[in-house]
Amino acid sequence: MIDIKTFLSHVSNHPGVYQMLGEDGEILYVGKAKNLKKRLSSYFNGQAKDTKTNALVKHVHDIDITIARSENEALLLECNLIKKHRPRYNVLLRDDKSYPYILITNEHPFPRIDFYRGTTKKDGLFFGPYPSSAAVRETIQLIQKVFQIRTCSDHFYASRTRACLHHQIGLCSGSCAGLISEEDYRENVQHAILFLQGKNEQILNELNQKMEKAAATLNYEAAIKYRNQISKIRGLQDRQYVSGQRGDADIIGFAANAGVVCIQLLSIRDGRVLGSRAYYPTVPPDSSVEEIVTAFISQHYLGQDIHEIPKELLLEVELPEQSLLEVVLSEQAKHKVVIATSVRSDRKKWVEMATNSAAQSVASQLLNKANTRERFVDLKQLLGGEEPPKRIECFDISHSMGEATVASCVVFDGNGPLKSDYRRFNIADITPGDDIAAMRQALTRRYKRLQGSDAKRPDVVLIDGGLAQLHAAEGVFAELGITDILLVGVAKGVTRKPGYETLHIPGKIPIHLPPDSLALHLIQQIRDEAHRFAITGHRQRRDKKRRTSTLESIPGIGAKRRRELLRYFGGIQALNRASLDELTKVPGISLSLAQRIFESLHNVTV
User: Fold this and answer.
1) HSE-CB for 368 with a 13 A CA cutoff
2) What is the CA radius of gyration of the chain?
3) Which of 154, 246, 451, 504 has its CA 20 to 30 A from that of 365?
């Protein structure tokens, strides 16, 4: 193992890249530094660090360094090494494919439009890049419908003597069968190019002039064709444009939940949305949002085709190395690149759009059936059953300083959440804020109903809380004679961060799963859903209670008497302080009714 003190005493102060190696020479982590000596010394100075860094340092047996001429060069080298070696302690972008483009060829009298991925040094006109192949194919279909440009290969085109099915369904002008002149076809191609460049108004002006000219010469068939083209282009314009302004930007949205991290990339060119794409990077535990987004930007853009870097990157979070990234991206792109975080107006809406899309992508990923099945299989291995659990129920308690306590019960099966079986319990007759008593009441009410009935019984019950809540659940199950349901307590760690939960199973030692465990991700997902369902119910109950007068629940007190009481005392607070004698002085309030009011307001018996 490397002698750290000796090594650090000889490390250069120059910028560069360092590779931390494991016992067998495996590259564990690649990093860059403006000052290698200072950066590497910070790992071994004995000061408190996050869990990821502590775990990394324990496994380091050697360090390789590469001196760079500048910090910019070090950033590029770091990016290339991460892509090549994919170290397990780095944030890794899984999909490293190049962007797709739309290609319009120029070597044929009748050019074609095609999907293209690769270097843009090939002859032809390239449009993009687009965030996904689906966005490219959708745009090509739209262009076919409006401008009727062929997509077939030159070899297929040369072998045709009559028009194919594409012409019959209105997606091609049939140039292979001589149904359109080369001049008219070239005009359609030029209009398609203008459309892809965002110059829709120029196309519309030309088509309007042609329509008017055709109508003036009584060529109504041509006029109708131009009118239909204008209508289609205006429809596409309304659909694709996100603002009246022109914009050339990539918007990066971020979301994370239950172990799933998503970067949503929304591409806008000339004010038009080209599409969006979700990326799910491999993220070590304890990675910050800033670290993940920085890794995404460097791995996604650096070393790629210069056409793929837009003039602006819009983010929701400010990055610690934002200025450096701007400089390096600008050098790569051969034009100025700005990373903006504090944006307003339309750009703020774009960022919100990307962030909301990222959250939706995470939710979809969590609900993916294949993904859910994998998590259930991993949970089976943890719990030791012969088959994965078929039904899991989870309980959580929510209240505000003991007010309006609500317990939730959410249900998951092999396909994900079973929302039709969700239940809420309004908790009453307990000491306010007593979560143990609330959990005991909710479990009793839930499973007492299941005794002797044909209702579905869970295989596993998750209890959100520590040992105290778990012991309360064990007591309820013992009273009800339930022995065939496994109880699992889910306690948050000291930092209350996801990934540090402790699982308590009766009769077993506490379990700490690794942050990348699929079983832990499933438990987090179910626990978080129970928390969401509980807090929603609590807020509804609390708000309803605050909007409702205490007097409404007292028998014999209608709207008229409530009005008289409030008018006499001047408000609900003065009414709460009133004595029994004072209540009897209110017009229309008898002694018996005054007693009921007093008992209800003060929760006593007179």
Assistant:
1) 11
2) 33
3) 504
b/e per residue 350-365 (b: at least 16 CB within 10 A):
bbebbbebbbebbeeb
Which residues make Cβ contacts (< 8 Å) with residue 481, sequence separation at least 6?
451
Label residue 451 by pLDDT band (50, 70, 90). confident
Give the CA angle between residues 197, 199, 202 to the nearest 5°.
145
- Give whole-number Cα distances, 445 to 98, 352, 356, 439, 450, in Å: 57, 42, 38, 10, 9
pTM equals: 0.56
Parallel, antiparallel or unpaired: strands 460-464 and 486-491: parallel
Tell me which H or E stretch contains 431: none
Q: For the chain, which domains are there?
A: 4-85 (3.40.1440.10), 100-240 (no CATH), 250-269+278-366 (no CATH), 370-542 (3.30.420.340), 550-602 (1.10.150.20)
pLDDT digits (tens, 9 = 90+) for 44-57: 887 767 777 888 88
3-state secondary structure of 412: strand
The residue to which tokens 């919100």 are assigned: 352
How far apart (Å, rounded) are the C-alpha atoms in residues 541 and 408? 13
pLDDT the model gives residue 268: 80
Q: Evaluate the CA torsion angle 64, 67, 73, 75 in order and state its sign.
A: positive
* Single-letter amino acid, residue 309: I
- Number of C-beta neighbours around residue 246 at 10 A: 12
Q: Which tokens in the block code for residue 222?
A: 């041509």
Helix (H, G, I), strand (E, B) or coil at 371: helix
Whole-angstrom CA distances from 507 to 458, 484, 511 are: 20, 15, 12
Distance of alpha carbon 528 from alpha carbon 394, whole angstroms: 10
Instruction: Give the model confidence (pLDDT) of 62-109 as tens digits.
Output: 888 888 888 888 888 888 888 888 898 888 876 555 668 888 888 888
In degrees and rounded to multiples of 5, residue 593 shows phi and psi of -70, -40
Tokens 């140039």 belong to: 175
Place of tokens 């314009």: 237
Rounded Cα–Cα distance for residues 200 and 407 (Å):
57
| pLDDT tens per residue, range 417-427 | 888 899 999 99
Cis ω on the peptide bond leading into residue 129 (within 30° of 0)?
yes
Rounded to an integer, what distance in angstroms lies between the CA atom of residue 354 and that of residue 265? 7
Query: CA 201, CA 369: separation in Å to the nearest integer?
Result: 46
CB 407 within 8 A of CB 442: yes
Within a 13 Å sphere around the CA of 411, how many CA atoms are in the beta-carbon half? 15
Check if the beta carbon of residue 151 is closer than 8 Å to that of residue 113.
Answer: yes
Give the sign of the dihedral formed by CA 455, CA 460, CA 461, CA 464: negative
